[in-house]
Structures are given as structure tokens and as C-alpha cells.
Specification:
447 residues, alpha+beta, Adenine-n6-DNA-methyltransferase TaqI, Chain A, domain 2, four-stranded antiparallel β-sheet, 26 strands, elongated, Restrct_endonuc_typeI_TRD, Type-I_RE_S_subunit, restriction system
């Protein structure tokens, strides 16, 4: 990073590992000299604020994504709430994750938060960047037992950490530099994120077209007789899901409690909605069910070519094919299992992830609170049925096309990862004085 920018003419040892050498004219002071803890009672007109690692300190109404009028607190008699001025900082409830947040708003926070105000002449944006840079967060996390235990830190613990301090003009210059440069980086990230979304839409469109219209654009079409399906190739059939596969779920009386969850090696893997990701089985999250409960329901023992379907919960409708299973598996009550398919299981898996099924699932919610599909709903899903040979060709085509698209998505994701690392490195270099941006101008290229 420093190779692209000029260094300061002279440096000195800061005496602190996380900072390393700093410009010779900079000072090092404890945080308690730069920030003081304030306990001003909330005003009756204050809006309640909340700390977010992504957005900083923002109105609670915004945090809850409410677009209505401001949510005013009935603060009479609740003097323990603390007033926050614009450009104050707050030690958040999740400060063990580096959550010392800047507030761009005036309002109040609960007494669980610690409010910090500047004791010295400072540019808040400089410290907003400094208190979020990776070296500082690492130093913060290694400085106290509280952080190692996953707890919030106190003002005394924060105040003992040494921070750099330079002139207000230099702080302002560094903050302006970072505002400009990180905005350009964020634009690149946004473009990559947009590319990923477009690729995902393309992937979905390719799957949906192939499994409902086939691969030959010149094939005569006919009305399927199914509203959601529309026209299908003239020589295709249509069926209901219950006629092409067997659908199983965990029967109520064969449910289980937390007492039936065991350690790895003492039972079978129990699959949940978290194990269904992008149409594939994902085993990054694992839970195990006792052998007694596993063998109690042999009909939901997971085998290769079974299809997992989330039938309950916020992600209901997600599906994935089990291409192989390296260990014994079963499903939890939120899942359904499609077994013994009479048509290509891989083709059926693609159908289950198509816009056709997604549209039907969207109107199949029978839960008043938690989204739910009944087995009757699932059984009635319309399924286009090409010949075995054509289904095989569709699967081969989709395997190739989706793999190519998935590889492009991975490349875009990797690009975002690299760009974010560059952004983090640039911020760290600027706020710790490893690069000299005092003569930087936004219209010029002085790297």
C-alpha cells in the first residue's frame, strides 16, 4: 500500500506495536485524554438512537427500517438515558467486535452505552476512520479480558489504550482523502455487487427457461393447462409433484427436543434450512441428532439424489439436491425430503429451483405467523415432464451453464474481497501515518 503513496519525511517509534512508527510530529496519548465520558440526561425531545457497526449511531426508527414519523420516547422519569450530541462517539453494546461508533445525529441512548465527547480539538471523521481500522480493532480486542470473553468494554478500558493525535488540519486532510478514495472504492464494490445480482438473475432465467420450455427454440408449443406454467413443448407431459416423487417430513410425534441433540460422533447429522445454500447442500453449519431419533424415522434418512425442501420458516421454498452424503443424515421438522424420483432427480432439482415453483410457493404460505407450506401444497406442485433423454440433455446443459455463471460469481466475489482489503489497508495506512496525504488534492493524481 505505501508503495503507491509518499511516506512522511521522518518517523519515530510510537512505543505501541499496533501503531508501529508514526510521523515525528504526531503525538501519542491515552484515549481518555482525547475522549471524555459524558453522562448528560436525555432531553424530552430526544429521539432514541442505536449503535450499528454498519451504519454507526443512527435513529432507532431508521434501524428498524420504519419510514413513519420519528419515534419519540416518553423519557419523563428516565434520566438514566444519556443525551448524545452530533459527532459524539458511543461505546456500543458490541464493542468487543470493535464497536466504538460515531454519531451523526443528536438524540439519546440507553445507559448500557457509554457516550464519548472530544476533550481536544479533533476532526470527528478522522477518529471515525481510526477507531474502525483493523490495527486498532486488533489492539482493542487483545487489550482486555472483557473482549476475550465476548463482552462490552468500559470507558476505563478504552481510555487506557494509546491513540495517535496530530493537528486538526492534518486530521481534516486525512479524513477528506479517505472520504474521496473510499467513495471511489465503494463505487467499484457496488459495480461488482450489481454484476453478481445480474449473474444470479441470468442463472435463474436460464434454469427456468430450460426446465419449462426445453432447449430447442423451434419446438412446437402447447398450452400446459397450468396457469403458472403456460406453454410447454408439444411433446412434453405435465404432472403433479406427488406423482413423480415421494415426499416425506418429520412426523410430529417423531419430533425431538434439545435433549436429543448430541455431539459430533454420537449421532447423525440433522439438516436444517441453514444447510441449503444456492441450490446445494452446505455443511458449514452442523448439528447432530441421537442415533435413537435417527433410526426412529427411517423414511427421512437422507440418501444421494434426494432433494431437500425448506417447508417452514423465513427461507421456505429453498431447495437443494443431495449429490452425495459422506455421513448419516436426517432432517429437522422445518424440512421436507423428496425421494425416489421417477424422473431425473437432477432435472427435478432444477425444476424445484425454477421461477415456476418459486411463484407457486409464494402463494402457498398457510402460516399465520411463520411461513409454512403443507404437504398437500407441496404434493400439488405442477411439474413439466420431458422424456428421460431430453431431461438428461437439459441437466447436462444446465450443469455447464450454471457452473460457468457460478464461476463468474465467484470471481466477482473474490474481486470484492480484494477491493475491501485494499480499502482497509488504505484506511489503516492513512490514519496511522504510514502515508503522507497532506498535499493531496482530489482533482489531482498524487499517488
Amino acid at each position: 500500500m505505501t508503495g503507491h503513496y509518499k511516506a512522511y519525511p521522518e518517523y519515530k517509534n510510537s512505543g505501541h506495536k499496533w501503531l508501529g512508527d508514526i510521523p515525528s510530529q504526531w503525538n501519542i496519548w491515552r484515549a481518555k485524554r482525547i475522549f471524555s465520558s459524558v453522562r448528560v440526561a436525555a432531553k424530552d425531545t430526544d429521539e432514541q438512537l442505536a449503535a450499528s457497526q454498519k451504519y454507526g449511531v443512527v435513529p432507532q426508527s431508521l434501524m428498524m427500517k420504519l419510514n413513519s414519523a420519528k419515534v419519540m420516547l416518553a423519557l419523563k422519569g428516565t434520566d438514566s438515558f444519556r443525551h448524545v450530541e452530533k459527532d459524539n462517539f458511543v461505546i456500543s453494546l458490541r464493542s468487543f467486535e470493535g464497536g466504538i461508533e460515531h454519531s451523526a445525529y443528536e438524540g439519546c441512548v440507553s445507559p448500557a452505552y457509554t457516550v464519548l465527547e472530544a476533550s481536544l480539538h479533533m476532526h470527528s471523521a478522522f477518529y471515525k476512520y481510526l477507531l474502525k481500522c483493523e490495527p486498532f480493532i486488533a489492539a482493542l480486542q487483545s487489550s482486555t479480558d472483557s473482549l476475550r470473553d465476548g463482552k462490552s468494554i468500559s470507558y476505563e478500558q478504552f481510555g487506557a489504550i494509546h491513540l495517535p493525535y496530530c493537528s486538526y488540519e492534518e486530521q481534516q486532510k486525512i479524513a477528506s482523502f479517505l472520504d474521496h478514495e473510499t467513495a471511489k472504492i465503494d463505487t467499484l464494490i457496488t459495480k461488482q455487487e450489481k454484476l453478481i445480482e445480474l449473474l444470479k438473475e441470468k442463472r435463474q432465467a436460464v434454469i427456468s427457461h430450460a426446465v419449462t420450455k426445453g432447449l430447442n427454440p423451434n419446438t412446437p408449443m402447447k398450452n400446459s393447462g397450468v396457469e403458472w406454467l403456460g406453454e410447454v413443448p408439444e411433446h412434453w407431459g405435465t404432472s403433479r409433484l406427488k406423482f413423480v416423487t415421494s415426499i416425506f417430513g418429520r412426523i410430529g410425534f417423531r419430533g425431538y427436543t434439545t435433549d436429543d441433540i448430541v455431539d459430533e460422533g454420537e449421532g447423525a447429522l440433522v439438516l436444517s434450512p441453514s444447510n441449503v445454500l444456492n441450490g446445494k447442500l452446505d455443511l458449514n453449519s452442523k448439528a447432530y441428532l441421537s442415533w435413537d431419533k435417527y433410526y426412529e424415522s427411517p423414511e427421512i434418512i437422507v440418501e444421494p439424489n434426494d432433494i431437500l425442501l425448506v417447508k417452514t420458516g423465513s427461507t421456505y421454498g429453498k431447495s437443494a439436491i443431495v449429490e452425495s452424503n459422506s455421513e448419516p443424515m436426517t432432517i429437522n421438522p422445518q424440512m421436507a425430503l423428496l425421494k425416489k424420483s421417477k424422473i431425473s432427480a437432477k432435472y427435478l432439482a432444477y425444476v424445484m429451483s425454477s421461477d415456476l415453483i418459486k411463484a407457486i410457493i409464494k402463494v402457498s404460505n398457510t402460516g399465520s405467523g411463520m411461513p409454512t407450506m403443507t404437504q398437500e401444497n407441496i404434493n400439488s406442485f405442477p411439474i413439466p415432464t420431458p422424456s428421460d433423454s431430453e431431461a438428461k440433455n437439459i441437466v447436462n446443459f444446465l450443469d455447464q451453464r450454471t457452473t460457468n455463471i457460478d464461476n463468474l460469481i465467484k470471481l466477482a466475489g473474490k474481486a470484492i474481497e480484494i477491493i475491501n482489503k485494499r480499502k482497509a489497508a488504505l484506511i489503516s495506512a492513512a490514519v496511522t501515518g504510514k502515508i503522507d496525504v497532506r498535499n493531496w488534492q482530489p482533482q489531482g493524481d498524487q499517488k
